[in-house]
């Protein structure tokens, strides 16, 4: 991952016990968990992550996992993480939690944050869209002027995380152009009439041609991120320093 600008002092990591405020179903397999934030002046930068600990979990990989923060720094009511259900004891316990349950949070961490002076191309695979939601929401709140183009890919329309939210935001705000695609349009229960197929060089070239020296942000499964990074640097000639990557491994 490329190093970015220094993180603001108010973003110094803190650890706190937090109450789960609510849970929201995003797709058949994905939920967003809203936890209480610590007292001010604690904050974070959009794109950073936190460590979630469930002390009661007995899991071979331990009782802690890292999650990108999917809420924006300006969302003062809660800190949100969004994740997909998995077979691990940790995920099973997390998805069984209800409002009022408690957990430990530690953060923020990470340098996967926007360069606010340059156009941004956000390339997301599946649940890798979570830090981009934070970035886009905060950019809108801040009145960001540099354009953002977000290409997100999912297997089916059912699993297109934040689909309705991103569509509404891109219609209401000229700073964002959101371009979703589905790779298996006939496998889900929800009909899909939009773009199909994977994110490829032709699509990226076409949709970013009007941008002047953008920074490319890649987030998703390791294989997808590696493939897109090769596409950008080797096939499209994007300078390595103009790419930022974040890997999402399943657990």
Write the layout of secondary structure elements.
Layout: E1 14-27, E2 30-35, E3 49-53, E4 64-68, E5 79-84, H1 89-96, E6 102-109, E7 120-125, H2 130-142, E8 148-154, H3 163-172, E9 176-182, E10 195-196, H4 201-208, E11 215-220, H5 222-235, E12 243-247
Parallel strand pairs: 7-8, 7-11, 8-9, 9-10, 11-12
Antiparallel strand pairs: 1-2, 1-6, 2-5, 3-4, 3-6
Notes on the protein architecture:
This protein is an alpha/beta fold. It folds into 2 domains: 9-109, Translation factors (Elongation Factor Tu (Ef-tu), domain 3, Beta Barrel), CATH 2.40.30.10; 120-247, Nucleotide-binding domain of ferredoxin-NADP reductase (FNR) module (Rossmann fold). 21% of the residues lie in helices and 31% in strands. It is globular, with a radius of gyration of 18 Å. Residues 1-9 have low confidence and may be disordered.
Structural Rg: 18 Å
The biggest beta sheet reads:
6 strands, antiparallel
Tell me the CATH architecture of the largest domain. Answer: 3-Layer(aba) Sandwich
Structural class, by secondary structure, is alpha/beta
Total discrete domains: 2
Question: What separation lies between the terminal Cα atoms?
Answer: 21 Å
Q: Report the mean per-residue pLDDT as an integer.
A: 92
Task: Please state the overall shape, judged from the principal axes of the Cα atoms.
Answer: globular
Strand order within the widest beta sheet = 4-3-6-1-2-5
- CATH topology name of the largest domain, in short, is Rossmann fold
């Amino acid at each position: 991952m490329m190093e970015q600008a220094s993180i603001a002092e108010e973003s110094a990591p803190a650890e706190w016990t937090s109450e789960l405020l609510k849970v929201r179903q995003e797709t058949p397999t994905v939920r967003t968990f809203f936890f209480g934030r610590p007292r001010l002046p604690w904050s974070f930068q959009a794109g950073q992550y936190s460590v979630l600990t469930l002390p009661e979990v007995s899991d071979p990989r331990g009782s802690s996992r890292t999650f990108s923060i999917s809420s924006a720094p300006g969302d003062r009511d809660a800190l949100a993480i969004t994740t997909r259900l998995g077979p691990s004891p940790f995920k099973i316990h997390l998805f069984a939690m209800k409002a009022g349950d408690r957990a430990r949070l530690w953060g923020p961490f990470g340098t996967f944050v926007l360069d606010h002076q340059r156009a941004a191309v956000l390339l997301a695979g599946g649940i890798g869209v979570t830090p981009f939601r934070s970035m886009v929401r905060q950019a809108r709140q801040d009145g960001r002027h540099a354009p953002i183009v977000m290409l997100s890919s999912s297997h089916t329309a059912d699993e297109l995380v934040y689909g309705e939210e991103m569509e509404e935001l891109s219609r209401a705000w000229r700073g964002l152009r959101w371009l979703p695609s589905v790779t298996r349009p006939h496998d889900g229960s929800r009909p899909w009439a939009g773009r199909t197929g994977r994110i490829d060089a032709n699509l990226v070239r076409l949709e970013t041609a009007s941008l002047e020296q953008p920074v490319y942000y890649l987030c998703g499964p390791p294989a997808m991120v590696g493939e897109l990074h090769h596409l950008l640097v080797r096939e499209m000639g994007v300078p390595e320093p103009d790419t930022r990557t974040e890997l999402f491994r399943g657990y």
